[in-house]
Structure formats: C-alpha cells, structure tokens
Write a structure and sequence with these properties.
Peptidase_M48, Mito/Outer_Membr_Metalloprot, metal ion binding, metalloendopeptidase activity
Length: about 375
C-alpha cells in the first residue's frame, strides 16, 4: 500500500476527515492543481519537474493556493499541535539530554527513595546490619603464628581445589622451561625446603618446580606446589637469602592467605552492588572498595608473611639477617616501584624497617634452634683411615 494512502487513513482516524479529502490535500495534489489553474500567480507558474513530492519545501507549500477544505484541515492540525505542546509545558514535560547510562542511575535512585519511604525502612536497615555483622563475627578466626584475627569463609579443602587449576595452568605455560630434577640448582633449593617444611607445621605433599626464566619471582600455591624462577637467584644468591624468599612464600600457605582473599572479594562485590543504590556505578565502586579495603588487606598479608617467614627460617637454623640482606638487595635492583597506597606489597624500605624490629625475636629463636640441634645431634670424632 502506498505511503500516501497509509498517511491518509491514519490522519482520517485521528482527525475525523475523509481519506479522499486528505489525499486531495497532499502537497503533490495541491501543487498540481495550482499549476493547472489559469489564475495561478507567477510564484506558482513553475515547472512540474521542480515540484516533486521529494523536494517540496514547507515554504512552497505555504505559498501555494489552498482549497478551502485543505486550509481548514491544516489549521485544525496546527491548533492541535500547539495545544499538545502547551499541555506538555504546563505538565513540566521538557526535553532533557541524557548521556548513556544515566537512566540506570535514576532508576536506582528511585528504588532507594521508594525503599526509604517505607514505614519499616529503619527496621529493615537494622535487620540487614545485624545479619551481616553476625555473619562476619561468626566467621572470624585467628592466624596461628601472628595472632591476627581475620574473616574467612573458605575451607582449606576448597582452597586447594581452586589452586589445583592454577597449578596445571602454570605447568602448561612453562612446560618448555621447567628445569629437570637432576640439576644442581634444584638440589640446592630442595635442600632448603627440606629444612623449612618441618618447622612450617603444614603436613601435605610438597612439590618443587624450578622454571628457567629471568623473572625474579617465587610462589607457593595452596597444596604445597612450589614454583621458583631462576631469575630470583640474582637476588637470593646465598642459602640464607633463599631461605628468606621461600619462608615468605610458605608463610602465605601457612596463613591461608588465598582463602582470605577469596573471602574478602565476596564483601567487596556486595559493597559494590550496595553502592549502586546511591548512584555509584559498578566499575567505580569496585575500584574504590579495592583501594580502601583490598589493597590495605593485601599489604597486611605481605607484612604478616614476612614475619612468619622470618621466624620460620630462624627455627630452621638460617641466619635471620639473611632476610634483611635480601630486601636490601631487592631495593637496589628495583628500578621503579609504584606508590605504596596503590600497591599490593609494602615498599622494600618499609619491609626492611619492619624486619629490623623483628630481628631480636628472630635471633632468639635462631639461637634456641641451634642449641637444640647441637643437643640432639652429637658430633662424632673424625676417624682417620
């Protein structure tokens, strides 16, 4: 069906006018009549080719002589448009530019206002606060060595199951760079682990993987999966310094920091969704909560791992000053480090200062461990063959 006929039927339904009259009032029909009339003005004595329906302007339409019926219909349409516009202005309807995503903000603000207008609003807020606070307090636990209390809802079994996938991915990623177990570097690192693991208090199957990579890094995944990159040997170039590195990484496993991070992420996500109701979008709320909650918690974990690792290496009869030497060397080799408040780790300088505070306690444990070892392992006289 042609578009002019559709427009005519729609206008007839809206204005109560016959479709024949509306078709006669189209710009094409009026211009045709004007051009064929003998009394047409010079303005309307123009070429038919110039006045097609596609290029007919409102000015030409207004200057064209209209039939009385068409003029009456056009006036009625104009009055209807003006009255509709006046009603919208009286009701406060104005066009307002909205940027992308602003409607979602108004939607959540409206939800918050409706919730706040409920007569039981304060009772509901109090009930939610009591439930969340009780859940948090119920899941508090104490870290064994440091005595710090923290929130944790992830069991050690779940922690190991989650970390097993990361272990397989790392093995697959570095499968062509894994050093064989017969290499002297692997022997030296394994010997240090054999002295650290018994004093860690964690009974599980430990597995060492040495990766030939310039990356100065080491990690211990939940479940006893130890990864050491050969680039760390440039920093930990003695047994005492390597014991400080491995003791720090094993301490993360002892304190179950992976489970703590997973538990903290649950509260961060809940907080981010809660901030949606006050107009903060999800991306900015997560970034804000990570800066206020996540990063400080990660730095506390690193400091706690430094303390646990220092005491562990002292009980394994490694000099505690080796940890201080290792972080001094790390600070010398670091070319750039971000500001501490946006980093997951404390600065090397701050870690060095903390270790100096803990050294007297670590030296005492070191002396006790050496005396105990001498008492249980009597030295035999050398036999000359």
């Amino acid at each position: 069906m042609p578009s002019t006929m559709l427009a005519g039927r729609l206008a007839a339904r809206l204005f109560g006018t016959s479709s024949a009259l509306l078709r006669s009032c189209t710009p094409q029909r009026v211009l045709t009549d004007a051009l064929t009339r003998s009394d047409a003005t010079p303005t309307t004595r123009l070429s038919r080719r110039r006045f097609s329906l596609a290029n007919t302007s409102r000015t030409t339409w207004a200057r064209t002589p209209l039939q009385p019926q068409c003029r009456q219909l056009w006036s009625r349409q104009q009055r209807g448009r003006r009255s509709a516009g006046q009603q919208q202005q009286s009701r406060g309807y104005r066009y307002r530019y909205q940027r992308f995503g602003s409607g979602e903000k108004w939607y959540h603000e409206g939800m918050l206002r409706r919730w706040a207008s409920r007569p039981t609003f304060y009772m509901e807020i109090g009930g939610v606060g009591v439930a969340v606070g009780g859940f948090y307090v119920y899941n508090l636990e104490e870290v064994g060595v440091s005595g710090r209390r923290r929130f944790n809802i992830v069991s050690p079994e779940m922690e190991k199951e989650i970390a097993s996938g990361a272990f397989d991915e790392l093995r697959q990623q570095y499968k062509n760079q894994i050093v064989t177990s017969h290499h002297p570097v692997v022997w030296k690192i394994q010997r240090i682990l054999d002295r650290l693991i018994p004093v860690s208090g964690v009974e599980q199957d430990w597995e060492l993987t040495v990766v030939n990579s310039p990356e100065a890094n080491a990690m211990v995944l939940p479940g006893g999966k130890v990864f050491v990159f050969t680039g760390i040997l440039n920093v930990a170039d003695t047994e005492d310094r390597m014991a400080a590195v491995l003791g720090h990484e094993i301490a993360h496993n002892v304190a179950h920091h992976t489970a703590e991070n997973l538990s903290r992420s649950v509260f961060i996500m809940l907080g981010a969704f809660s901030l949606l109701f006050v107009g903060v979008d999800l991306l900015h709320s997560r970034w804000l909560l990570q800066l206020v909650v996540g990063l400080p918690g990660s730095r506390r974990q690193e400091s706690e791992a430094d303390y646990i690792g220092l005491m562990m290496m002292a009980r394994a009869r490694y000099r505690p000053t080796g940890a201080l030497e290792m972080w001094q060397r790390m600070q010398q080799l670091q070319k750039y480090s971000p500001p501490q408040f946006i980093s997951t780790h404390p600065s090397s300088h701050n870690r060095e200062e903390k270790i100096r505070e803990w050294l007297p306690e670590a030296e005492q444990k070191y002396q006790e461990a050496v005396e105990e070892y001498k008492a249980n392992h009597l030295s035999l006289p050398r036999i000359t063959w």
